[in-house]
């Protein structure tokens, strides 16, 4: 079991995202539960980022939306960084 730790930026982003996309609330809750349980589940499509975001990872919420995070496997901790569209989170 991993501990989910939300940054202040993530807290603000998720409020904004949830208001804009209330239809994704259940799916978002499931993704977060699955991340907490095991971030390496294939359906999460966890992948490392490159370029200026190297060292970070992302998971897919839908085809259009992502959650960026920092994965600390030794501490069993996931730092949630941002949620939004591909363009928003990969800037």
Explain the overall architecture.
The chain is of the alpha+beta class and 91 residues long. The protein has a single domain, classed as YaeB-like fold (2-Layer Sandwich). Helices cover 33% and strands 30% of the residues. It contains three helices and five strands; from the N terminus they run βααββββα. The protein has a five-stranded mixed β-sheet. A hairpin with an 8-residue loop joins β2 (47-48) and β3 (57-60). The longest helix is centred in the N-terminal third of the chain and has 13 residues, at 8-20. The radius of gyration is 12 Å and the shape is globular. The chain starts with a strand and ends with a helix. The relative contact order is 0.22. The mean pLDDT is 94.
- Provide the low-confidence segments as ranges: none
Largest sheet: 5 strands, mixed
CATH topology description: YaeB-like fold
Strand content: 25-35%
Number of helices: 3
Please name the defining characteristics of this protein.
five-stranded mixed beta sheet, 91 residues, YaeB-like fold, alpha+beta
SSE blueprint and pairings:
Layout: E1 3-6, H1 8-20, H2 25-37, E2 47-48, E3 57-60, E4 65-72, E5 77-85, H3 86-89
Parallel strand pairs: 1-5
Antiparallel strand pairs: 2-3, 3-4, 4-5
Task: Describe the structure in brief.
Helix content is 33%, strand content 30%.
């Amino acid at each position: 079991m991993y501990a989910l730790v939300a940054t202040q930026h993530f807290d603000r982003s998720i409020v904004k995202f949830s208001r804009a996309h209330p239809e994704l609330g259940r799916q978002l809750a499931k993704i977060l539960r699955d991340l907490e349980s095991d971030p390496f589940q294939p359906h999460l499509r966890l992948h490392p980022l490159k370029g200026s975001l190297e060292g970070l990872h992302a998971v897919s919420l839908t085809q259009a939306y992502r959650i960026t995070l920092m994965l600390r496997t030794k501490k069993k901790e996931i730092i949630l960084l941002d949620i939004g569209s591909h363009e928003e989170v990969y800037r």
